[in-house]
Design brief:
The termini are far apart. The protein has no helices and 9 strands. The protein is mostly beta strands and 127 residues long. 0% of the residues lie in helices and 47% in strands. 17% of the residues are buried.
Amino acid sequence: MTQEKAGKCGTTSKAKMPAGEVLDLAGLVEYGAGAIVSRTLVGNHAGTITLFAFDADQGLSEHTTPFDAFVQVVEGAGEFTVGGEPFQVGSGQILLMPAGVPHAVRGGGRFKMLLAMLRAGGGSTEA
């Protein structure tokens, strides 16, 4: 896929993917043997959207971030710990990991997730 295929809409300045084109989300990142593969799709001052592919038994150790982390599992299932509480999140399910709260992720088997990192304290957009 090249930027020329993006169509009339083009791309945004921080996009790592074409705008104005329908894409297969799970197909945008492949599994790597014994690895975690990531692809940042979009990033700006408010945060980033990154797609991850975790090979079996791969994970991220406990850490905190200054961003709210919104996770959507795209394929398979992941094991998440947020503030010491475990969660099993499967394909099509979502989980919010609040800014400043320790969290970790691990896959028993292979899984893919979409992670939106949103700057905390940016004000409410609720209607």
